[in-house]
Amino acid sequence: MQSTTPRPLSLLVLGGTRFVGRTLVEAALAEGHQVTLFNRGRTAPDLFPEAEVETVVGDRTADLSALHGRHWDAAVDVAGYEPEVVRRSVTALGGSVGRYVFVSSLSVLADQSTVQDEDGEVLVLDENVLPHQLYGARKAACERIVLDAYGERAAVVRPGMIVGPYDTTDRFPYWPRRFRRGGRVLLPGDPGDPAQFIDVRDLAAWILGCVTAQRAGIHNVTGRTLPFGEFFATCRALVNPSAEPVWLSSEKLLNAGLDPWMGVPMWIADPACTAINRVDVSRALAAGLTLRPLGETIVDTLAWDTARGGPAAGSEGLSAAEEERLLRELA
Predict the structure, then answer these.
(1) How confident is the model at residue 41 (pLDDT cuts 50, 70, 90)?
(2) C-alpha dist (Å) from residue 79 to 15, 21, 116
(3) DSSP annotation of 316
(4) Does any domain span residue 158?
(5) Are 77 and 186 contained in the same domain?
(6) pTM of structure
(7) Does residue 186 fall inside a structural domain?
(8) CA 331, CA 326: separation in Å to the nearest integer?
(9) What are the tens digits of pLDDT across the range 104-129?
(10) Beta-strand runs (E) in the chain
(11) I want to staple 108 with a disulfide (CB 3.0 to 4.6 A). Which of 18, 122, 274, 292 is the partner?
């Protein structure tokens, strides 16, 4: 009887030692796949033992010749930001990889004030692009390069906010850590405001599935929209039920001069981004996207954050002194 066990795949990961890439490599190794990393060898060069992961050191912005003459089942590009750099990678790997998975971003969407699916208009990289839209416009240009080159062998993954262990942004880790500290906790906006994010491990599983299940095309890959109040209530219940939530409206916070783009972690009050946490992910869910329970992400993120000793001084999402000032003046 023929075995139905999938054969191990050979994967080339461009990047692979930071947040998403690191989690992807861990997931691939857990499934028995063979992984080659191509990067500059500057970020966590000793992260994976040589016996488990081959690392080819090189600079994709200038020279990919170290990859010539080799073949992988797929390339996963977790670190493509500049169109010309992605074009160089696509060209160099044209005959070397069976599939190309590009990790893009929901920032490519031109309109973030209304709910969008994968067919929504994307930003165009030209002289009219506003500075804060450059990241999204560049990612959109990268998407087109990959799709044009690989067609049905290309997959474009558009994550929203990514959370979970190894997240150094302190947007999500701030909250379970803050609830653990207890006392009066400043909660921004309204309990009914939308929140939307994805655990990095669920995202990594989807990216890997783009190879193993041969998914193609563009998919928005983030979590289901949930009320901000549900997120905070779950943090409080799991971490410290004695913490005292204090809601401050977006109007009050804006009048106090806070940045509408995460002046408080995960809070977005920019009128141009009213739908950024309500993106349509039905296509990915129908294609097999699975999402772990919220509580698991909260508990695991807090454990990782505790093990690392919390963020570096001055890089925490909202300082205790600033939070106390806002509570004192606005509550």
Answers:
(1) confident
(2) 6, 8, 24
(3) S
(4) yes
(5) no
(6) 0.95
(7) yes
(8) 7
(9) 999 999 999 999 999 999 999 998 89
(10) 10-14, 34-39, 53-57, 72-77, 97-103, 154-159, 161-163, 184-188, 194-195, 197-199, 217-221, 226-227, 244-248
(11) 122
Q: What angle do CA 259, 300, 77 make, to 5 degrees?
A: 70
The radius of gyration of the chain from alpha carbons, rounded to an integer in Å, stands at 21
Nearest to 295 by CA among 237, 221, 226: 237
Task: Check residue 317 and give its pLDDT.
Answer: 83
Selection from 318, 161, 301, 299 nearest residue 225 by Cα? 161
Burial 100-115 (b: 16+ CB within 10 A, else e): bbbbbbbbbbeebeee
Q: Is 129 a member of any domain?
A: yes
Give the domain extent around 189.
Answer: 174-195+226-273+293-324
The pLDDT tens digits of the residues spanning 194-252 come to 999 999 999 999 999 999 999 999 999 999 999 999 999 999 999 999 999 999 999 99
- Is residue 53 domain-shared with residue 150, that is, in the same domain? yes
CA dist list (Å): 277 to 42, 135, 191, 243, 293: 34, 18, 14, 26, 18
Q: What is the pLDDT of residue 6?
A: 67
The one-letter amino acid code at 311 reads P
Asked if pLDDT for residue 4 goes beyond 70, the answer is no
What amino acid occupies position 32?
A: G
- Residues with Cβ within 8 Å of 305's Cβ and at least 6 positions away in sequence, in order, are 173, 176, 177, 311
